[in-house]
Design goal:
alpha/beta; 8-stranded mixed β-sheet
Length: 491
């Protein structure tokens, strides 16, 4: 049975990871930060250090990615045997190097030690699952779940069944990955390289030829992608991207117009230049020049920050991977702690202060953070899409901010929210922003919300279970202390 259910899938209690490299470490971060316990098997002596570094990068990215409170982190247990990694888990994720002679015996050993119902997945980027199933016990529960680096940020996971994979295994896998914020793409057919890698490597091959033939440098090839069609890719894939470049109303007629052009010998297709010493030296020298003074860790952080910005932009539009991000955040809200007697303020938002927060437009950031905290509270008391459609919702009509103490770039913060008062029509909230691990208020925000009817848009009483939840929460919060208010401006 699932440990946690919501609209975005169900979250396992524990997973077993086989391999702690770049992909295995990314999986560890993805699961741990979603509150899933991880049992990690890896033979390399520096595995723990590498995984902890990836986990630190993921924490940093998530603080920028979402202001919704994350669950309590799962526990990381490093084990010395495959059997210890797979016992008592609901999912096994294999992520060792891309060699069949390594993967097959490892998957076989995992299948022998794991419970028969445990899902077993491989992160292989190109090997067909039927090849991997050969020695697996209960092969009907084995499939490929191919992610992309960084696993903790990029949402796509390609699910590919082998000849012996049961359809329900794909369904279960999709639910698990969706619950930790991913977008499972279930393949129709088994094929080497799956979908995304076949497309990605076709571009990479052509890029290599352009550098090999001195048509362009590494920098020029990458710039050609970054400043043109690469910017379209988060919104439109290659087929739709071509479709909208012509004025034809018929998709068939539009595609027909490209047929003659695609017959021209523009690309090398599947040919790859020989990796001679001279060619490798050229690639290395140009790549080092392109990186400039940035180290690999600095490049990884720049990559993560840019991906966060793209994902947040897509979320604002409710499109593509942004829709997946919004669905994951909805699942996080659904898992906010349950109301209990004597409850304190609710932890409704978290984040990290960036340098932009202390710029001239600093006043816009705190209302945004408190707005997200308010939305999280409303979700918590039951104001969801169904309630809004049938009964209405709350509208903000008044807000007062108090800036009490300095915050600095890099500070990790949380918002604690309590209800100062509530009746059938209104809620008065107090949001208190603190540094994580510090009880001193840094910024406070008081908000007055009024309930608006769905039908006529006029003020009206809150209904049903939402009324019960908000009044009960107000009762529990009535005895909580209120922080002192000072109007000290941030500099």
């Amino acid at each position: 049975m699932p440990a946690s259910s919501n609209l975005s899938g169900w979250r396992p209690r524990a997973v077993g990871l086989l391999g702690g490299g770049l992909i295995g470490g990314g999986w560890a971060a993805r699961f741990l930060l979603n509150g899933v316990d991880v049992r990690l098997y890896a033979r390399s002596a520096n595995t723990v250090e590498r995984v902890q570094k990836i986990l630190a990068d993921a924490r940093r990215a998530y603080r920028r990615l979402t202001l919704v409170s994350l669950p309590v982190e799962g526990s990381l247990t490093v084990v010395t045997s495959v059997a210890d990694a797979v016992r008592g888990v609901e999912l096994v994720q294999e992520s060792v190097p891309e060699r069949l002679e390594l993967k097959r015996p490892l998957l076989a050993a995992a299948s022998q030690a794991a419970a028969p119902e445990t899902l077993i997945c491989s992160s292989t980027s190109g090997l067909r699952p039927s090849l991997l199933q050969a020695d697996v016990d209960h092969p009907e529960r084995m499939l490929v779940a191919h992610p992309f680096n960084p696993v903790y940020l990029l949402p796509l996971v390609e699910l590919c069944a082998g000849q012996q994979t049961a359809p329900e295994a794909l369904v279960r896998g999709a639910e698990i990955y969706r619950a930790v914020g991913m977008y499972p793409l279930v393949m129709r057919k088994e094929v080497d390289g799956f979908i995304a890698n076949r497309l990605q490597e076709a571009v990479f091959r052509e890029a290599l030829w352009l550098v090999h033939d001195d048509v362009a440098t590494v920098q020029e090839v990458d710039d050609a992608v970054r400043y043109s069609f690469g910017l379209r890719r988060p919104v439109m894939g290659p087929v739709q991207g071509y479709r909208v470049t012509v004025a034809e109303t018929s998709a068939r007629r539009a595609m027909e117009r490209f047929a003659p052009e695609l017959k021209l010998p523009w690309t090398k297709l599947t040919e790859v230049p020989e990796f001679t010493d001279a060619f490798l030296d050229k690639l290395a020298e140009q790549s080092e020049t392109q990186a400039g003074k940035l180290t690999i860790p600095e490049l990884e952080q720049k990559r993560d920050d840019c991906l966060v910005a793209v994902l947040q932009g897509l979320r604002a539009q409710g499109y593509g991977a942004g829709e997946t991000l919004a669905l994951w955040e909805q699942g996080l809200r659904d898992r906010l702690p349950q109301l209990t007697s004597g409850s304190g303020p609710l932890r409704t938002a978290t984040g990290q202060i960036t340098s932009e927060w202390n710029a001239q437009d600093t006043e816009s950031h705190y209302p945004q953070l408190f707005g997200i905290a308010t939305e999280n509270l409303l979700r918590y008391i039951g104001v969801d899409g169904e309630y809004r459609s049938n009964n209405g919702g709350y509208r903000l009509i008044e807000m007062h901010l108090s800036y009490l103490r300095e915050l600095y770039a890099g500070d990790c913060v949380q918002v604690l929210t309590q209800i100062l008062g509530a009746d059938d029509m209104c809620i008065r909230l107090l949001h208190v922003l603190t540094r994580e691990g510090d009880e001193e208020p840094m910024v406070t925000g008081e908000q007055l919300l009024v309930h608006i009817n769905a039908g006529n848009g006029h003020r009206g009483p809150v209904q049903g279970h939402v009324r019960e939840r908000v009044l009960e929460l107000a009762r529990l919060h009535a005895e909580l202390p209120h922080p002192e208010r000072e109007n000290v401006r941030l500099r």
